[in-house]
Amino acid sequence: MRASLVILFVLIVWLPLGLNVAGRDGGDPEGENRELVAFTGTNIGAWFNDHFGLRSTFVRWYGEAQLFVFGVSPSASVIKGRNGWFFYADDSAVEDYVSEHPLTPEALANWRHALVRAERWLRARNIAYLFLIAPDKHVLYPDEMPSTVVRIGEKSRTDQFYGNLWDTKVLVDVRPALVAARARERIYQKTDTHWNDRGAFVAYQTIVNAARAEVPSIPAPWTRDEFDAVSLDVAGKDLTGMMGLKRVLREQDLRLVPRRPRLARVVQPSGGQPDDEVGRLVTEIPGSTLPRTVIFRDSFASQLAPFLSEHFSRAVYLWQNDFDAEVVEREHPDLVIQEIVGRHLHNFIPSPELVPDP
Question: What pLDDT is stored for residue 44 in this prediction?
Fold first, then answer.
């Protein structure tokens, strides 16, 4: 009996390495929603941790046990909500939800300085400017958050931002339109940090209407009647990958399929798609004389891009929070849009000095 246990123990310990030797890679970058360590010849330990035989199976078993047996999220980066909803816990998302630490007067003053300086510099060049905060999922679906995460403050940093800086006249608030849309249908993904097509569409309409007030030659936003609403059963998205359960959990992806062809084409990177998450993405409408735009953005603009790009002859999307005057001078846009997700008000400090003196 003892010998059998010893043999079994040795087999279990050596099985992962044996599978690697046999040519089986235990890593699953798709299932974990991240890039695994690549072998360089000098990082055997780090590579083996990501690729040992049966790794993806063990990760999945652990995740299933935590979620389905103990009823908790298997990842500290993900909060298990109610009714199949999951929420992002990193990147100051929890701090944003509980609203314990409001923006200081100094922080608000710095934001005002940054917005006013950018607006004045752009206006001197006949360029319009819009700034918006993309709401995190917990802003629209606080009722799906677990009762164990309790809000402390009455006002979020986004509330403060809009309340104190609205007179800068560059702000666009997409929250009222999203709240109204939520009453009609689900507008955020259950297993992702972001809005779905239908939420992004509502935000897009609000942005374009605000842009047209500044640049009337921008076409009116598409209407909902120009899309077919479809629902697709898909594998879980980014939050399920963080839990190692992307191949286990699924959800209904509520999409909007245009009834007429989209004209904008990605010219950089070559072969890209409008919703690709890359540092620099450029779309153009061949032969168009529509206005041009530069958009400083984060991941929430990825689903906005297919909609927004139809309104500009050239749209340059840059994955960064800070304003970049050099890019603006090089691109000669008619409009600059700056988008930032609400939780980044906790960890991003704008740099007004990056904008040249108006």
Answer: 59
Residues 244, 119, single domain; the answer is: yes
- Report which DSSP code applies to 346: G
73 three-state secondary structure: coil
The DSSP H or E segment spanning 80 is strand 78-80
Same domain assignment for residues 269 and 317: yes
* Domain-embedded: residue 279: yes
Number of domains in the chain: 2
Identify the pLDDT of residue 13: 46
**21/156 same-domain check:** no
pTM above 0.85, yes or no: yes
Question: From CA 248, how far away is CA 288, in angstroms rounded?
Answer: 45
Q: Give a yes or no: residue 71 inside a domain.
A: no
205 and 275 assigned to the same domain: yes
The answer to whether residue 323 is domain-embedded is yes
Residues of the chain under the 50 pLDDT cut = 8-15, 17, 19, 21, 25
Asked if the structure places residue 177 within a domain, the reply is: yes
pLDDT at 179 (0 to 100): 98
Q: DSSP H helical segments within the chain, as ranges?
A: 2-21, 29-32, 44-51, 55-64, 93-98, 105-123, 137-140, 157-165, 175-182, 197-214, 238-242, 305-308, 325-331
Q: Which helix (H) or strand (E) holds 154?
A: none
Q: Which helix (H) or strand (E) holds 349?
A: none
pLDDT at 214: 97
Task: Give the domain extent around 350.
Answer: 93-354
pLDDT on residue 210: 98
Q: 225-234: which pairs have CB atoms within 8 A and are 24 or more residues apart?
A: 226/258, 226/259, 226/260, 227/201, 227/256, 227/257, 227/258, 227/259, 228/256, 228/257, 228/259, 229/198, 229/254, 229/255, 229/256, 230/254, 230/255, 230/256, 230/257, 231/255
In whole angstroms, give the CA distance from residue 358 to residue 355.
Answer: 8
Each residue's pLDDT tens digit, 179-228: 999 999 999 999 999 999 999 999 999 999 999 999 999 999 999 999 99
What DSSP assignment string belongs to 177-203? HHHHHHTTS--B-SSSSSB-HHHHHHH
